[in-house]
Specification:
Blueprint lengths: L1 E2 L5 E7 L8 E5 L5 H13 L12
Antiparallel strand pairs: 1-2, 2-3
Length: about 60
Amino acid sequence: MVTAMNGKPVLVIMAAGMGSHVDRWYGVTYKEDKETVVNAIRELKKAGIYPERLWEEQ
C-alpha cells in the first residue's frame, strides 16, 4: 500500500510485461478508479500477462 499526497492509501498494481510490452502501474485512489483497474486486470489476464489466481485457496 502506498500513501497518496492527500494522505489516503492507494493500492498499486503492477503489470509486469514480457518482450516489448511496457509495464504500467494502476492505482485505485477513488471509487471512480475501480472500473478502469478492474478492466485493465481483466485484459491482462486474457493476454496471459497477469495470473488468473494470485493465491491458492486452502
